[in-house]
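Intended use. Records like the one below are meant for learning the mapping from a protein sequence to its folded structure. Do not use them to infer anything beyond what is encoded.
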Amino acid sequence: MGVVKIIETIGSSPNSWEEALKSAVDDASELPIFKSKKNITKVNVKNFDVEVDDNKVTLFKCRVEILLE
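Structure written out for the chain above:
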């Protein structure tokens, strides 16, 4: 049985949820834990949110769990 580490993070983008998801994974991959040869094996999307200003969507947010082995 292996050990899996889960990191929860939030990515954001003014353009789309896809960019917000990519931002979350890219930002997490810069963490020191990845420097020790840990690899992302799966990303679970927990939820999607948006920020609204003056009745217009201004920011897409994506909360994710990143699993490492």
